[in-house]
Structures are given as C-alpha cells and as structure tokens.
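Archive entry. Fields below.
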Amino acid sequence: NAGVTQTPKFQVLKTGQSMTLQCAQDMNHEYMSWYRQDPGMGLRLIHYSVGAGITDQGEVPNGYNVSRSTTEDFPLRLLSAAPSQTSVYFCASSRDSGNQPQHFGDGTRLSIL
Amino acid sequence: GESVGLHLPTLSVQEGDNSIINCAYSNSASDYFIWYKQESGKGPQFIIDIRSNMDKRQGQRVTVLLNKTVKHLSLQIAATQPGDSAVYFCAEILPSQDTGRRALTFGSGTRLQVQP
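PREDICTED_STRUCTURE:
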C-alpha cells in the first residue's frame, strides 16, 4: 500500500490563481481530511469527509472547496489564491471518523505570491 | 528546510534520558486522544493513542498519561534516542456541533531535541 499520496509536493501560485491539491489513499478508509500547518499554529482542520458524497467544514474552511466523489480521492480546491493561504497542506485518512488514528501524507508546500 | 515550528516550545534532553512532553487539551467532552511525531519535511506519524476511560497506556518506549480532572495529557519517552528528535503534537477528538461527526483538533506542538 502507498498509504496517503499528495500531489504536488511543492507549488508556487500568483494571487488570484486557482488550483487543486490532490489527495489519494489506497487503504479503503472512509474518513479523509485536509489540514493546513502554519508556523507556531499546529495543524488546523480545513474540511473533512466521513464518506463518499459527504463533506463538512472544519475550523478554517473559507477560501477552500472539497468534494468526495470516490472513497479514494479527496481533492482540495483553492478558488482564488491569497497570500494568507501560503502554508503546508496535509491530507489524512482513517478507517472511520471516531476512534481511529489518522494516516497523513507528506504534505504540499504552497506559496502564494 | 521546514519552516513549521519556528516558535514552538522546545524540550532539550540528553541521549539516554527520559523525556516528558506535556499537552493541555481544551474540551472536557473529548474522549479520544492521540500523540503524533512529525519530522522535518514529513507528515505527522501516529505514536500512541488513549481513550478517556483509561488513565495510562504503554507502547514500545512510550507511555501516555491522561488526567481528565485537569485536562492534561503527557507523553513519556524512555531512553530517548537521536531519532526521537522531532515535533510532537497531541490531538483530541471533538464532537461535531451539528451532526455528531467527530473531528480531530491538534495542539500547537513541542519540539524535542536530543543531544548526543
């Protein structure tokens, strides 16, 4: 198993551009989530999904969209990139939403100029 | 290199000593807690978890203690090794406000530096 795979690993955007961060897992996990990690802030939850077709907002959802058309994939879309969205983005998955540890990808490092 | 964690509290220990990393959690309704280790340039890696019906849980070289009275969690690492150098995060499961779905909330982390 590859686990949780995130692409791209690095990306530089200009303000106002849009893009999609990809996340795929091959563990047949129902629960997937996106976090952003900023210096001194820990990880903050952006959006999450408890299964295909179901998504919900986390702590910092503004400026981001998600969809969950399949169990394996959970893409994160930046609608109009802003410098405040410069961060490291992590995708995670777990067997269910409640009582299982999450498995993380290695992150996408995103810079908005 | 990784810029995350520039302002994190740092614990510096000698190789072979025991390390204790502390975490205060926010919600008395949280009933599941996890410790993660994050090395530079990597995603968080699961270390150990504990449920609220327990006070202590042991793994290989690691022990987690839970004090629900004061909402405090600690991670003890025995015989700390240079490979243990990383940022450590505690995380709690909070019930969702709307639907009962459960979301993971992370603390801000502690950097562990192991001196050879």
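CURATOR_NOTE: The radius of gyration of chain A is 13 Å.
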